[in-house]
């Protein structure tokens, strides 16, 4: 009997294209029957934000971060050739043309395939993000949760 | 008998310095007798572009991406301190001074050492890149091809 | 008897937030009893710079890189939302508020936990950095030193 293979991804980046790459690999690995975990930290947490504003009791700096950071996967910019927001529009147009999946669709697919989406609680604190601002499918954990998975993983990536 | 070790790199970035790092690790691993694969996706595909313009039948957005993206390894910018193109010139000057290898030389060396260079067909579609625009040594595949290699790899990196 | 697990990180990036992530994972892995190595290359070398200027005999370009690059962990910018230096100040304020650790503190902790900090000699040459400019705890090596560790590692990341 072969043990189930494991893929873990640290999604640090808040870029639309990098998050796409992370979720494409995650979905591929899940289809390949890997156990898959995406650990969202720093700007990667933005992929998990709900797209509506959430009322909350934040300090000034937390409010500032909350306002400036993209609210959800669909609002994220590109790592290269962002052109003040034109780049993501272009990418979304070609995604549509080629019947490829957008980032929100890739995230939905990952949830359907039981990819575990973990939000890093330490960086949520730093950026002032609350659990009520993130998708309901999200689990919460710290670096220990990540390492517990990664040390048994065959494919471990930092994106 | 020990099995041959395996290194896989996803080259996502289109930055000269990051591609250098990817190819230096790949060449090192090949010299160490690893089986090495570099899977080029998104902006990392630019490292594989031929340096002359290729006539092709593209849509407007594909043409726009094609024009704006660097045509080949030698045209790529730096991830930090790019200074509107001054950074790469400075780096190339110090590479020359220290008798180190430029990115195109590192790619040639990888080809000589049988490093497999795979281009991600899905992102080629998105960015409107055709096979006639890429180096002739390139192989083509998707996320399944990547995972098939990576799940048996000892060193798997996302760059 | 179980063999000791191993974590290796290539720290390529010179961003404060990415270096924080690298050192948080490294410290976590060390606490988990992994043998941990951080291999600093390109802009990641800046995390190891002493914060005072060092007199040295450099070429013009080396001097330029030396001046423009941040002198030590505390001077580094953010990968996203840097806002001409405002971002790092905001992050440091929230770190303080949440009693979290700053990057220099994370580096000190890594040294205390015997995380091996290796500086890539090849990129030190390229960027014109000398051993007298880096922290005294630093070891020196090339890509072979990195691969020697990584091929036996369970968790290998490129940051």
Automatic annotation (TrEMBL), chains A, B, C:
Gene3D superfamilies cross-referenced by the UniProt entry: DsrEFH-like
Pfam families (UniProt xref): DrsE_2
SUPFAM superfamilies named among the record's database cross-references: DsrEFH-like (SSF75169)
Domain of life per record: Bacteria
The protein's name in its UniProt record: Peroxiredoxin family protein
């Amino acid at each position: 009997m072969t043990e189930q293979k494991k893929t873990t991804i640290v999604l640090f980046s808040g870029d639309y294209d990098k998050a796409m790459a992370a979720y494409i690999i995650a979905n591929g690995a899940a289809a390949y029957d890997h156990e898959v975990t995406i650990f969202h930290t720093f700007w990667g947490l933005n992929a998990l934000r709900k797209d509506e504003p959430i009322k909350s009791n934040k300090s000034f700096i937390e409010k500032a971060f909350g306002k400036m950071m993209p609210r959800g996967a669909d609002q994220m910019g590109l790592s290269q050739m962002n052109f003040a927001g034109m780049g993501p529009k272009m990418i979304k147009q070609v995604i549509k043309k080629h019947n490829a999946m957008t980032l929100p669709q890739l995230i939905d697919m990952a949830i359907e395939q039981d990819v575990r989406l973990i939000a890093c609680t330490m960086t949520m604190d730093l950026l002032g993000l609350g659990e009520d601002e993130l998708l309901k499918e999200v689990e919460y954990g710290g670096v220990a949760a990540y390492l517990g998975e990664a040390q048994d993983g065959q494919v471990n990536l930092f994106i």
